[in-house]
Amino acid sequence: LLQDMRFDANGMQFYDQLSPEGILGDMVAVNGKIQPVLRVARRKYRLRVVNGGPSRFYYLHIVTKNGTSLIQQPFIRIGTDGNLLPRPLHNHRRIEIAPAERADVVIDFSVYPIGTELFLVDRQVQLDTRGPAGLGATRDLLKIVVDREPPEPDVSRVPLLLRGLPTISAAEIASAPVRRFAFDRNNGQWAINNQLFDVEIPSVTVRKGSYEIWELVNPSGGWHHPIHIHLEEGRVLSMTMLETGVNVAIPPENQGRRDVYVLPPNSMMRVFVR
Prior knowledge:
Blueprint: E1 2-5, E2 27-30, E3 33-34, E4 37-41, E5 44-50, E6 58-66, E7 69-72, E8 75-80, E9 83-92, E10 95-97, E11 102-108, E12 117-125, E13 134-148, H1 170-175, E14 178-186, E15 189-192, E16 212-218, E17 225-228, E18 234-241, E19 246-248, E20 260-263, E21 267-273
Parallel strand pairs: 4-13, 14-16
Antiparallel strand pairs: 1-2, 2-3, 5-11, 6-7, 6-10, 6-12, 8-9, 8-11, 12-13, 14-15, 16-21, 17-20, 18-19, 18-21
């Protein structure tokens, strides 16, 4: 569980709940600790990475260090958000993860001799709460030490097929109602389609068992929006940059069923939700 945190002079966690910009932590806790150590046996492990927020985006690698050189280590990506992918992604070497996103990976530590030290590192530069600013120098988040043999031989395998995706037919896409949700600011507060949140008034009512296409739109303002749809999952159909009208490729790890959709500035994502 990755969380960006900020501490005051007394070592107490600080958070400004009234700032409309939120707050960006200057330290990263992993399961509540700063730069902890994980000791592992020479076998496979499944690690579930959760970005617990509130504000930081991460660009993660697992590396070994050779002097000043960092050597990226491969792993197998098997899941995104709450679901397994249709097939494992072998020789994966990075995890891009926004607040609320999850990633499941399998790392085979049997290929490393006892005494090997590996590090989970972040390369994302972020200067404010609005989102990432590009890649830069690495910082260590977690140290992993291979320190023992497993108590019994590791015969586990990652299957060639994980969980197939439900079929979406061309007829369903053609007949699906389309809703548009634009995320923007209104008098210093967040609004959707220029409407402020009201807990007493449902903005949208959908019929159980139906399917729709939702257009999630980030029109301006320089913010990156991780949009989390509670209690329902969907499939990304496309992502378009609004300034150019060009569709951008959806990476394989984002082509499965998911519930967090990351919108960079001036973009629109079309999501099929059943």
